[in-house]
Amino acid sequence: FLIFMIIVPTNKTLLEEIRELLRRQGYAYATESTYLDWVRRFVKFSNVQSRIEMLENAEQKVERFLTHLAIKQKVAPSTQNQAFNALLFLHEQVLEISIKNENIQALRAKKKIHVAIVLTQEEVAIVIYNMKGVYRLMLSLMYGCGLRIKDIDFGFDNIYIFDSKSQSDRTLPLPNKIKDELKLHIDDVCRTHTQDLNKLLTDPTLIKKYHRTHLGILMPLICYKMGLIFDPFKSYLDIRIFPLR
After folding, report:
1. Burial readout 231-241 (b: 16 or more C-beta within 10 A, e: otherwise)
2. How many C-beta neighbours within 10 Å does residue 118 have?
3. How confident is the model at residue 147 (pLDDT cuts 50, 70, 90)?
4. Is the model's pTM score more than 0.90?
5. Which residue from 210, 219, 216 is spatially nearest to 239, judged by alpha carbons?
6. Rounded to 5 degrees, what are φ and ψ at 153?
7. pLDDT tops 90 at residue 40
8. Do 93 and 136 meet the contact criterion of CB atoms below 8 Å apart?
9. pLDDT value for 4
10. N or C: which end of the chain has fewer CB within 10 A?
C-alpha cells in the first residue's frame, strides 16, 4: 500500500500559495507571472494586510480595482479582463470564495475603434524587401498564407491551416521563394531543441531530483509547431525547471 502524506506549511505567503497552485494546475509561466503581478497590484491598491481583510467586501474591492484600471489607468478591455481573471483565480482557487456569480458593477474599459489600413502589393513588397533574417521569413509566410498556419509539409509542398476565420480547414501551396530558407530555419530550430533536450537529460541536479525516464516528457518533442519555429528565444527550456546559468 502507498501512503501519501500531504504536508501543508503554515508559513506560506499568499503569492507563494498562488504560484504553487498555478504550477500544480499546469499554467504557463507567462500566465503565472501575469497573475502574480495583478495580485500584487490588487493587494497594494486595496491596502489589505491579511486574508481576513481581503475577504471582507471582496466584491466591492474587485469592483473598485477594475474601475480604477478603466478610469485612471485607461487600460484596454483585454487588459481589464486579464486582471479580472487573475482576481477570479485568487478568490476562487486560493481564498475559496466565489465571485463568479456576483454582479461585478465595475466600469468597463472602452474598446478603441481603429480604421483598417491596407497596403498595396507594391508597398508590401517594399516592406518585405527591407526586412532581414527570420523577421523577413515570418512576414513572407504570413503574407502568403495567413496567420493560422499549423503544419508544413515539405514533401508535398503544402501548408495546412486549421480553424480559419470561416471555421474550416484547408491547404495552401508552400511558396517556392521561401521554401529553402524556411527549411534551413526549421533545421536550426531543431538543432537548438536537441541541444536543450541533451542538457535536460544530462543535468546532474535534475537527474537527482527527477527520475531520468520522466525528464523526456518535460519538453515538447515536436519541432514543427509554429509556436516553436518562430519563438524569439534561443533556448526552449522552461526556466522554472531548468534555470539559465
Report:
1. eeeeebbeeeb
2. 6
3. low
4. no
5. 219
6. -115, 100
7. yes
8. no
9. 35
10. N
C-alpha to C-alpha distance for 231 and 189, rounded to whole angstroms? 9
Which residues, listed in sequence order, are joined to residue 153 by a DSSP beta bridge?
Answer: 158
Residue 93's nearest CA partner among 146, 29, 25 is 25
3-state secondary structure 139-170: HHHHHHHCCCEEEEECCCCEEEECCCCCCCCE
Q: Is the pLDDT assigned to residue 237 strictly greater than 70?
A: no
Higher pLDDT, 113 or 118: 118
Residue ranges of the alpha helices (H) in the chain?
A: 14-24, 29-46, 51-55, 58-71, 77-89, 121-129, 133-145, 176-202, 204-209, 212-215, 226-229
Q: Across-strand partners of 160?
A: 151, 171
Rounded CA separation 52/44 (Å)? 15
More confident residue, 230 or 29: 29
Residue 155: per-residue pLDDT:
79
